[in-house]
Design a protein that fits this description.
disordered N terminus, about 200 residues, 2 domains, Arc Repressor Mutant, subunit A, elongated, Tetracycline Repressor, domain 2, mainly alpha
């Protein structure tokens, strides 16, 4: 009994944030299901028990990795909230996506998109959580569009639902293009082209 208590209180044998960063890159590169626990433990240099102790299970690790991916000084929420208009928010979302999807030190594309595409029915709960995150971003942009309509920065007959969905669809498409090898300049051009459809 004494040994059990001692094990529970034992500190982690690795840097949690560093491990989370490595795991995030693995999931980003290979997707949720294709990244096995063996891949994770090999990359982190730890035993499976250490992963379970720190994150609960693979899903817990993945969701923490998603949290890390979505954190930082610039987020979708901050971009939308701080933009002076819906148009400015959409432009910045597209620009940041083009840059983020083609980073030199990260896998191409979007972690949210690539992980969702590779999820089978057995990981439906993970796919649903990723979809909820994307829907929340879309809802925030839609609210910004509605505010711009109220402020007469957009025509009264603007379809806020479709406009927000279009921007999200373009961003998801840009992720696919990036994984297919598109350059940052190419993605920026796609973003500019999409904004020409803005009312």
């Amino acid at each position: 009994m004494h040994e059990t208590i001692k094990k529970k209180g034992r500190p982690l044998s690795f840097d949690r944030q560093e491990a989370l960063q490595k795991a995030m890159l693995l999931f980003w590169q290979h997707g949720y299901e294709a990244t096995s626990l063996n891949d994770i433990t090999a990359a982190l240099g730890v035993k499976p028990s250490s992963v379970y102790s720190a994150f609960g299970d693979k899903k817990g690790l993945f969701l923490d990795a998603i949290g890390l991916y979505l954190s930082g000084p610039v987020t979708s929420d901050s971009i939308i909230d701080e933009a002076p208009s819906a148009r400015a928010a959409a432009c910045e979302l597209l620009r940041v996506a083009a840059i983020g999807f083609t980073g030199k030190d990260t896998p191409p594309g979007c972690l949210l998109a690539s992980s969702a595409i590779s999820c089978s029915d057995s990981a439906n709960d993970v796919r649903l959580e990723l979809a909820a995150i994307r829907r929340a971003i879309e809802a925030r942009l839609r609210a910004k569009i509605l505010t711009s309509i109220e402020q007469q920065a957009l025509p009264d007959d603007t379809d806020a639902d479709s406009l927000a969905a279009m921007i999200m669809a373009v961003i998801q498409g840009m992720s696919t293009l990036a994984r297919d090898g598109a350059t940052q300049d190419r993605l920026l051009a796609v973003g500019h082209a999409a904004m020409r459809a803005w009312p």
